[in-house]
Amino acid sequence: MVRALAERPVERAALESVLKAARWAPNAGNRRLHRFVAVQHGPTLAVLRMVSPGMFQRPTAVVLVCIDQRRVSAFGMRATAKSLLIDVGTAAQTMLLAAQSLGLGAGVVTSFSQAAVREVLNLPEHLSPELFICLGYPAPAQPPAMRPRSPVTWQDLTDWERFPSTGNRQPL
Amino acid sequence: MAMAPGLMLTEDEALELLSFLVTAARTQLDESPEYGPLRLLTAAGRLASFMVERASPATRALLAGPLGRMPDAALRSVDPARYVNELDEVCRALARHLVGHFGLDRTPP
User: What is the ipTM of this complex?
Assistant: First the structure.
């Protein structure tokens, strides 16, 4: 994740490469229930940032990942089905990796007013805005990364096989 | 107080707002999480009150209209769903104003 971006614009060809990568992101049942809105227009980016408290960076391009609720409904799925947000995540991760391979800086923003973003981009009613991928070229100086209070290894995050039957299934 | 065109805040007003935001960040650490939106909307309300006499007619209408109808903090615990809906409506009104103010609906990208 890159949190400070330079003013240099992202080339259209690079943005298209990121979008092409998103097309190949893993998604449940290959149903492709997501749509992407790409923005490079400076004034629009500035206003999007105004309604996105989590957008610390000043991207020169963004991709908004939306869920297409019309297609969700057509497949008979619930609007709150877990796989919908998982697929937002896989699309985001794929775009982050593609961006890095192109030498771009990228970061995810989920802290934004969905109601305001709908208005700013004049989104059709059936598209629900879920996540921004902010793109640009990395600035020379980066803010310190958010780190856990103590170092975390993959072993800290992993348990193996079935948990022992020690009465650990207590309600939260 | 007469100000240069386009300026919305005097230095004193800016300092008042700056102080409120910084100290609210600190007090929030010791307070209930539900005070967060309250403090932010209070700051927005103060900023609006500073701006309203100096703003363009369209912005003044926004400040006096939708931004003057921000949901009461008590509503959050009484009717959380309505609180969310009313805040979303304020966000929508704000976004519509931004689109017009910055000409997004007039300038082709």
Answer: 0.79
